[in-house]
User: Fold these one by one.
Assistant:
Number 1:
Amino acid sequence: MTTPSHRQQKSSQAAGWRPWPPILGVLLLTSCATPVGVQRVDTQDAYRVLTANAVATGTASEYTAQVLSRLNLGEQFEHDPAAALVALHGHALTALNNDQVNNRLFALAELSFLHAEQQKQGSPPHCQPRKGWACPPEDATPHAAEQVRSYALAAAVYAYAFLFPETPEDGVRSPADPRLRLAYDLYNRGLTEGLTSSAGEEAVLGSGRYRLPFGEITINFVAPDFMWAGHRFDRFVPTVNLAVRGLRNRYRRAGIGATAVKII
């Protein structure tokens, strides 16, 4: 019996070697990537992520996104925002401690305002009942303009409850909590949108019962003496979305409430 020489063995090994296909090399390279990672960003990008919210960027803040994630409502809000708000409202009513109440009230305020803004962009997707998902009653789907006012007023109600709880100890939180400033903005903006005419041009100042996604609210309007040079003013325009040109400075006074100017 003869055995192959050393050179023959090397030749046979070389003849049996085949280069890996390029796609296999790509798969090996990409398989090293991890699902979680960290990268450096500049100051402005980092600040934009930290301060993103429904008013400034049209997206939920990190605080609200965390609430949705913990309650497994993120996907539902994306597809059926009205149904997700119904579910979140229920979670707020069954919260176990003050922290849960405050977190969910703030999320309800921001998401209600965000949904109101989305209503102005177009019709929302129709609620499709799914396992674990609740849909609002059929009679709770008013006209789009009414929905905008309804959810905007709801944002103001939730924000007010977050800012001014029934007992002071229920709302104890750090003055450095950035949600406080945003809650004031949500209240002011929600009140403005909720008391704006269907055309979106004039403020509707009057007493009455206003529809909310979860019920109704009664507003009593005490009209001051809107008189100037012997003329009474009864028409007003909200100022939050007005841009001013031709003036060097624009002065603002901090406060809570909706601002409007008189129509002359």
Number 2:
Amino acid sequence: MKQWYRNPRLRAILKVDADESTTEELTEPAMRTHVASLLILVLLMVASSGANTSLIVGNTGIFGWPPVSWNPNVSCPVVLGDLRTILGSAYPNQSLMGSPYQVNATDGGIPNKRMLRPPCSIVNINGQTEPVLVQVSGVYLSSYQTEDCSTKFDPINNGTSYPDINGDGRPNTFCDSTGNLFLVGDTNSFNPRIHIEFDHDWMAAGWAGASTTYDSNETIPRCPPVPPPMTNFCNGTPIAVQGFVFWDNQDPSPHWELHPLTAWKTSS
């Protein structure tokens, strides 16, 4: 009997008896046909599930199948993504055009980065429906900072004041925690990358930030700041993140973001 057929995992998948006489009855060509049939069946199952298979390619550190939201406040389906898919044909550079998340000539991803209830999918410029809650693995966080503080919710979230959590009679202040994700092992001038933001409205709502275990902006592994010209590679802790895809066209350097970032876990 051929050694390739002695693999215990393969034997278990094919439900082959441990008895040697049983396995001898199956010829190598027959076994190859059996394996090929199983592979075709798996591909058909993935295709029929409605998953965007282009987002699955290249993703590492999968945390179970099918992927689910790690944030209990988010009920949207999760798709496995990578930087190449999000950036599209402009990869490794930042451009609205060429990304599957481009909605029109100026916008991409969800309509508003502050939304507490963003849509689960968008219709892109080509008329295709794209899920926008993406899970990306095998990345590390750098350029981490605090910015854009507020004491009230964005108008998209009714514009009311933040809660008075510390009891001083005034609404608490919450700020975005922001940074950039880079591919683990990539030393190509810190490119490609994607920007992430723990959103201050999500923190005020208690859906993100230090009050959570699944989306803490304080405990997320990150690299120390790297001064210009950013030529020193930081061997950061690999993480996997989930967030809504958004094109920030208001920044002086427009770019793709996962904003809001909804959850993260350490990866491998």
Number 3:
Amino acid sequence: MRVFVVTGHYGSGKSEFSVNLALVLRSREQSVALADVDVVNPYFRSREQRALLEHHGIRVIGNTMGVDRGVDIPAVSADVYGPLTDGTTTTVIDAGGDPVGARLLGSFRRLIPLNETEVLCVVNALRPSTRAVDGVIEQIQGIETASGLRISGLVNNTHLLEHTEVEQVLAGDLLCGAVTEQTGIPVRYVAAVKPVIDALPDDVAGERITIGMHLRDAWMLTAKEA
């Protein structure tokens, strides 16, 4: 796949996952871009890690104003179109999972090469709205309806930040497995901090992504400085 669209509701950890996925892909690919098109959530924006990502050779695309931190500008740069259409750049799109964000994603759906695209729904089984199968499916259906895109993979990103325990990720694995049974959507990734990833049993579904909490550290530093 060349394009990875990452969606999920607030608190799912989709932006942190997007940053870490881009870093993993860069270790495998020559050209990688991360496009942050989530114009709704003013916190934990993936584009705030521009310095880290660019240090690793990842192109970062944000809003039209060139402002990354602490500003809520509901406009996406037209620069996002380039990586989607050049046929060579592996692109991670950090998209909002609420109706507004999903509709924005749908606005440039025609530019997304569907046969080369994975549309991921990030699931945190510890969030109130996605603790049960029905809640996850409702989220998926809402994203699909608003964006016009079909979710093709799940991400088990069940977490309590650095306090995440193996048992919690295993509970997320069971939840995502039940969603797969009802929808046919497979689990593509399981994401967690390194001690948890290293301790997971072999039968947990999904490719393992070790999460570095880059966004949380940056946000906390900004809050302290303020």
Number 4:
Amino acid sequence: MTTPNSPMILDVDEKFQADKWFGHGINYNSDTLPACVTEEKEKSEHIPPELDNFSVDLSVTQFLQHTTPKLSAEIIHTKTTIWFSRDEPMQLEDVKSLLSRPVPSKDFLAELDAAYGQAWLDGATSIIDPRFNEGRERLPMWMLAYWKKATEVNEMQELWRKGVIWLRNEGQRLNSTALPETIEKATRLLDNLHWNTPIRPISSHFSYIATTLFLAKFLGTFWLNDEHINMMIEQLRENASKRTSGTAQQLQTLSTVVEDLSFPLAIHNLPKDLSKEKNKRIIRLGQLAKDGTMKKLYFPLHVNSTHWIAVMIDFEGKSFSFGA
């Protein structure tokens, strides 16, 4: 029999056998256990489809109206071991009536999550919530996954909610300017914009990975990441191409060129690899500057990993400038 500390022999074709693995004091380590064990553990965390109703197809407006369990700020002092039981779990219909209970704090959920694999391998088949009814109910093992999902959704709702409030406040603050029309348009879009679906770049020049949830951080004073900056630059290019009746690619032949974050990164890596094959872009921009086609070059920079600035190189005036 396998001892708690002995290494596992990985067998990708092995079929999971409960009596072989459960309750034998085997240490749960996803790096050493066979795939059949870790896959079975993942199955135990699967939320029933009828309860996994946090649909990404909802619009932002619908998503904010979607009811989710409240998050508890209660500090839980009980050990995670008493939250797991070998008793049979309640029936699904009985569990549904308990889903509106407050979700344990995010910190405690992390502790439960860390203990889950070992408890499951030791033979736990249900979860106890000692906060209610003296812990008499036996909840299904997937309840932990449900709590984690509810926590994530609450955080995403809060992100969108803050953005919508900011948008509303800005509309009231700027009601004497031309901006309210733009704000009103943005507000109307929330009725049709899905709250967390993939966003595809407008042009092949960009390769960022983002979802519509990223857009929420444009509504306010949130911290922006690389994807946000590249999305803004892409939109800037698109707007400029419409004003000049050209395409975003054609902008590269105009007197003013706007580059994304990959440009300063390419400059940073230039000394490491001077091959023409990997530096076609830099060479092309250099040629545009040399023959006088490109008068100005704009690109973003992240200073000390804390602050975004815009940089402009004026090739005609032989100067450069930057600012927030």
